[in-house]
Amino acid sequence: SGLMIFIAFGFRSSPAFLRNWGVFYLVSFVVGGGMFALHYFLLEQQVIVNGILVTQAGGMGTPISWTFIVVAFPIVWWYSRLTFRSLAERQVIEQYIVQVEVVIGKNSIRGSGLIDTGNQLRDPLTRVPVMMIEAHLITPILPQTVRSAISNEDITVGLVNLSPEWLPRVKLIPYRSVRKGTEFLLAIKPDKVRITQGKQMREVNNVLIGLDNGRLSQDGTYQMIVHPSFVEGTA
To answer: Using alpha carbons only, how large is the chain's radius of gyration in Å?
Structure first.
């Protein structure tokens, strides 16, 4: 069953794989349990006792089976509710998932982005909108000095040795964090960003890419946070 799930959906992350695996067994048990119950509901037990054919049907079941039902039903109900709620939330999120391509020079990277209507982060001087991206996704196309700045606790120190062609591309965006207060976000100016939503593709040139060292989505559904102005046409 694990191999079937892997072939059908692939492996993006452990939570996503386990969720698909659990739904697979849930559906199998529901369908199989219904057929199993119907089979025993219609089944008549026949036993030959001293040459006499004795049949037995109906009844309320054994105490053990009823105890099992009483214990197992709340567990199955809770798991079913939790699973389908997770699927419903995921379906809502997928409505806001877009495919994003970031182009810097001759190189580009692709990933999935979440349109966050609450993201109003902009460069305070130029008012250029800022979208977030997981740093590990874009570091392969960045120079070593920028990679060092990302991993350095004091990013201003890591940017001292930037080459002249990269100086206009790198910015420090002040922003306020709930946990740490005011900080500086390292942002990159790409040549362009292409955003594909369904059959529509929009190209944005006036954009900054903020680099996040963590993971924006626990299950890997998306790797970027897209500014809402990019899809609303107000960027």
So the answer is: 28
Distances 88 to 26, 85, 93, 98, 210 between C-alpha atoms, Å: 16, 5, 9, 18, 30
Q: CA end-to-end span of the chain, whole Å?
A: 46
> Can 116 be counted among the known catalytic residues?
yes
CA dihedral 160, 145, 186, 140 (to 10 degrees): 170
Strand segments (E) across the chain? 45-49, 52-56, 97-104, 107-115, 130-134, 170-177, 181-188, 192-197, 200-204, 208-212, 224-226
CA–CA dist 209, 129 (Å, integer): 9
d(CA 86, CA 2): 20
The residue annotated as part of the active site, out of 116, 191, 212, 219, is 116
CA-angle at 209, arms to 206 and 214, nearest 5° = 165
Q: By C-alpha distance, which of 89, 110, 112 is closest to 15? A: 89
Burial 110-147 (b: 16+ CB within 10 A, else e): ebbbbbbeebebbbeeeebbbbbbbbebbbebbbeebe
pTM confidence score: 0.59
Sign of CA dihedral 221, 136, 3, 79: negative
User: What are 146-166's pLDDT values in tens digits?
Assistant: 777 777 656 666 666 777 778
Amino acid at 57: A
Highest mean pLDDT, choosing among 11-20, 116-125, 126-135: 126-135
